[in-house]
């Protein structure tokens, strides 16, 4: 950076056409330091312990209900295709009154839309099923 102290033109006043950026840089450095000091204080979160991922092997019982949702959104009840969620609701209502109540296992294709799975979960909830689980593939071990 250059700085002009005096004129060497014999006293003529000249207009300075350069922008002095030194104060701007100083302010930006001060703001950066303030931000770095205060950001950990602002981001104080409640200390919690998040649950660990666990894969449990499930013993398939004959009374468990298996619902499959394929990538097209078709719903299958133990290999029988359902017309819609109303038919699924009728089947689940019968199962909900059994003692002990069977578990419902939902197997959804990984390319199935979330809406299709959500409709099945909502239908099981409406029918009064207490235990609903998702069946997934275990992750690859590297």
TrEMBL record:
Pfam families reported for this sequence: ExbD
Membrane topology reported for the UniProt record: Single-pass membrane protein; Single-pass type II membrane protein
Keywords: Cell membrane, Membrane, Protein transport, Transmembrane, Transmembrane helix, Transport
Record flagged with keyword Nucleotide-binding: no
GO biological processes: protein transport
Superkingdom as given in the UniProt entry: Bacteria
Molecular-function annotations in GO: transmembrane transporter activity
Record's keyword annotation contains NAD: no
Predominant subcellular localization, coarse grouping: membrane
Compartmental location: Cell membrane
GO cellular component, one term: plasma membrane
Transmembrane segments: 24-43
Annotated family: Belongs to the ExbD/TolR family.
Protein name: Biopolymer transporter ExbD
Natural source organism: Pseudoduganella buxea
Top-level taxonomy: Bacteria, Pseudomonadati, Pseudomonadota, Betaproteobacteria, Burkholderiales
């Amino acid at each position: 950076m250059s700085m002009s102290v005096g004129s060497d033109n014999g006293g003529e006043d000249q207009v300075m056409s350069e922008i002095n950026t030194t104060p701007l840089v100083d302010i930006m450095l001060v703001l950066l330091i303030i931000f770095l000091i205060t950001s950990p204080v602002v981001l104080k979160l409640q200390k919690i312990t998040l649950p660990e991922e666990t894969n449990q092997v499930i013993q398939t019982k004959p009374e468990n209900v298996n619902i499959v949702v394929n990538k097209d959104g078709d719903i299958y009840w133990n290999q029988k295709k359902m017309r819609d969620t109303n038919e699924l609701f009728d089947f689940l209502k019968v199962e909900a009154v059994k003692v002990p109540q069977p578990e419902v296992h939902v197997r959804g294709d990984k390319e199935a839309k979330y809406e299709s799975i959500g409709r099945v979960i909502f239908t099981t909830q409406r029918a009064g099923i207490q235990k609903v689980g998702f069946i997934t593939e275990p992750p690859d071990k590297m």
